[in-house]
Amino acid sequence: MSITPTTAPASTGPTAATATAPTAPTARGTDPADVIADARTRIDALDDRILGLVQERMAVSAVIQQTRISAGGRRVNLSREMEVLSRYRDALGRPGTSLAMTILELSRGRV
Questions:
Q1: Contact by Cβ (8 Å): 111, 62
Q2: Residue 22 has what pLDDT?
Q3: Which residues of the chain register pLDDT less than 50?
Q4: Is 75 in contact with 65 (CB distance < 8 Å)?
Q5: Taking a C-beta distance cutoff of 8 angstroms, is the pair 98, 82 a contact?
């Protein structure tokens, strides 16, 4: 089974968050209602991308789990999960751990 990404590759690391940092008000003007509407539209687009990336991650995780099980291994690799938790915590603080736990939970047992 091969996985074909459905979205452009995401950048990773500390600079990834700054790559899409908020910008100055758009050409619509500086009316607060316009600024908020534009920002909400952007958030909706970002959420769509995040959801797509989580779904892609789940699919890739399923491939890994199925391959590991087929080779006689365990479905879950706890040391790998600890690495993921640490990476999210380092990047986002304590809430990052909760986010990583949710993502790991979504990615387990889908084989």
A1: yes
A2: 59
A3: 1-18, 111
A4: yes
A5: no
Task: Note whether 103 and 57 are within 8 A (CB).
Answer: yes
Question: What six digits make up the tokens of 27?
Answer: 């050409």
Which pair of structure tokens corresponds to residue 47? 């959420």
- In single-letter form, the type of residue at position 44 comes to D
Residue 23 Ramachandran class (φ > 0 left, ψ -120 to 50 alpha, else beta): beta
CB distance 108 to 66 below 8 Å: no
Kindly give the residue spans of alpha helices, DSSP state H, lying in 3-93. 16-19, 32-70, 78-92
- Superfamily designation of domain 31-107: Chorismate mutase (1.20.59.10)
The residue ranges of every structural domain in the chain are 31-107
Q: Which residue has the tokens 């993921």?
A: 84
